[in-house]
Amino acid sequence: MDLWQKDIAPSNSLRVWFGHDEKKWDGFRRRYFNELDKNTESVKTILDKARQGSITLLYGAKEERFNNAVALKEYLEVLIIKSRNYGQTREEIDYILAIAIYFVNVISYVNI
Q1: So where are the chain's domains?
Q2: CA terminus-to-terminus distance, the chain
Q3: CA distance 63 to 55
């Protein structure tokens, strides 16, 4: 591991509020994305690493679908799409990601 950015994690108060409760997932993502919007240096560092090659996001939660690494991956994907200047609005990108996430969930469900 060549980089560990503790400050990219959600705030302690947000983590405690969320508690990996699936019902709070959308609210968690929205609040975490707001925190990330303010943490530009750490986000830029990760994006720079991603441009150099693959990155691995680690997490310590038992929940695989609803954790900060999943949310961070989604946030970074949106920024990468925007940086490619496809011209989509945030709402269009959110819609595209929602379809992709649904598709992955359907495939995961079928493979169980």
Answers
A1: 6-87
A2: 32
A3: 20
pLDDT digits (tens, 9 = 90+) for 57-79: 877 777 778 888 899 988 988 88
Distance (Å, whole) CA 17 – CA 21: 9
CA distance 4 to 39: 15
Q: Find where tokens 């961070």 sit.
A: 72
d(CA 45, CA 61): 23
- Residue 70: which of 58, 80, 81 has the closest Cα? 58
Mean predicted lDDT score pLDDT of the chain: 78
pTM of the predicted model as reported, rounded to 2 decimal places: 0.72
